[in-house]
Structures are given as C-alpha cells and as structure tokens.
Amino acid sequence: MSRPLRIILLLIVVAAIGGGAWWYLHRPSANDALTLYGNVDLRQASLAFNGSERIAQVLVEEGDVVKKGQILARLDTSRLAPQVREADATVASQRAMVLKLRNGSRPEEIAQARANLASAKADAANANIQYERRAALTVNSTISKQELDTAKAAAAVADAKVEVAQSALDLAIAGPRAEELLQAEAQLRGSEAQLALIRQQLDDAELAAPFDAVVRSRLMEPGEMAAPTKPVFSLATIGTKWVRAYVSETKLGHVRSGMRANVMTDSFPDRPQGGWVGFISPVAEFTPKTVETEDLRSSLVYEVRVFVEDKDDLFRLGMPATVKLLPNEEPKALPQNANRVDAKAKP
Q1: How far is CA 132 from CA 25, 55, 124, in A?
Q2: 284 touches 249 (CB < 8 A)
Q3: Most CB contacts within 10 A, which of 36, 111, 132, 195?
Q4: What CA–CA distance (Å, rounded) separates 37 from 70?
Q5: pLDDT tens by residue, 79-119
C-alpha cells in the first residue's frame, strides 16, 4: 500500500474516532433539561355592577393594588334606600298579623262577645213578651193587625241578633282558621323575600374586588350609567402566573405534571424563578401563530402550562419567557384533578 493511501486511511480513521467521541459527549440524554419558549399569562377579570344605576364613586386608579373584598366603586342608592324602608315596614306589618292570628282572641274579646250575646238575649226576650201581649189584645180587637205584625217582626229580628251574637262568641272562642294563618304566613314569606331582594340590590351597589389584584383598566367614570354588560374595571391577579408554552409530540414524553422548572425572561435573565408543570393539554393542536419554538414549522403540538413562583413580581402579562425543565429534581405534588381544574380555568 502506497504512503499517500495509508495517510488517507489514517485520516479517515481519526475523523471517525473524533466524530464518534463528539457524538458520545453530545448525545441526547433523558437527564438533559428540556427548554421551552412561551409567554407569561395570568388570570384576568372584568368587573361590572349587577344593577343598572348611575355610578356615584370610583375609588381606585389604574395600577393600584387592591385586596380581596376592597370596595372599588359605588352606585347611586338614593332610590333604593326608600324601597328598603318600605319593604321593611311591610314585613313588620305582616309579622304582626301572623302573631295576632297565632295568639287567637284575647280574653277581653271573648268577654265582650259574651256580653253582646247576653244583651241580644235580653232584647229578644223583651221583644217576644211585647209580641205575646199584642197577640192577646188582638182577640178583643184592641190593637190592629198591623201593630201585631210589627211586634212579631221585632221579635224575629231580636232572635236573629241572638244567633249573630252566639256565632260571634263561638268564633272568638275558636280563634282564627288554620287557612287564614297559612295565608298570612305565606304573605309574610313573600314580603321577606322582597325585602331580601331589595337589600341585595343595595349591597350590589358596591363593587368589591373578588381577589387580590392589580387594576389594569378603569373603564367607567362617575356619572356614567352602569349595567351588568358594561365592565367598570379590568383586574389582573397578583399571585397565580404561568407560562403558556408548546411542546412537540416527539418531546412530549419528557414532560410530566409536577416537573420542576426554572423560568427566565429577557428582562431578568440572571434571576430565574422557580416553577412547575401544572397542566399538559390532552389534545393536540396545530402550531399557533404566537408560539415560540426552536423550529418554527407547522406541526402538531401540545400546550403546557408552567406555573411560576414569582415572589418578586417580575413577570408581566405577555412577556416572552424561557422555561428549562429540571427532570432530576423532585416533582411538585399536584392534586389528582389539577389538569382538569386548570383546563377549565383557561382565560
């Protein structure tokens, strides 16, 4: 074999050995950190009043940090306050009526009914005596038949009054009917429901923050007419933030729920924030226009949501972020239905 041929073969062997060594040192490993690219996302809410009334006060400005339950705005309640007082008075009247029916007749009312009955009996006895006297005089033709008829009618009227007085006494002793009590109780419940509704409308005149948040937008001002379909504020949550990234099907097997990660942004590349994989989409989708991957090509990808422990409040909505998954670290314990909950909570 000639010398040049031996040199060529030697170079080929050296190149093969060098290539094999480079591949061995740089070969893919299941322990290598997988890098994903995405954008910071967070939960947002548009707040509107439940009622339709003119706005009286707007108490916060854009950029203010608000706490859960803090009052952000108020409606004009000049028309609701009198309605509350009127409904409250109606409820008090209905309660008094129910109490009256439950207690029944007072002893004084029964005594009065007995006295009325005794008076009616006395009048009836007197009317009957007068009738009998006139009947006796009719035999001798001392009085006319008309006078006798008048006395008879008076006696009949007196007897009827006795029956009326007796019925009144019986009713006073028996008390109200059960149906009357049920009717009064039903009317009371209706009045109480109406009062509760008006009081709820009065409470809804104050717009409170549903969670700790930052006021992103102040959309309405005092004097404007509020409505349930017209947001007054746009809020962004402070605590829960995540990076919405996408992973290809070939790398999906390296991603697991609870896997730890470091999240970095271009604004703070030297201050990585800890995070974990909280959601992996069960459904594939075509690469969105806003996706950021190393190979920008149309393919089926899966959405991955990496939650961030942004203790320093560095991340902002829409900020590009780099996620490095850490397969060797202990994964975060997640609820059994974490993926389902996170999927429903997509903004």
Answers
A1: 138, 84, 12
A2: yes
A3: 36
A4: 36
A5: 998 999 999 999 999 999 888 777 766 777 778 878 888 88
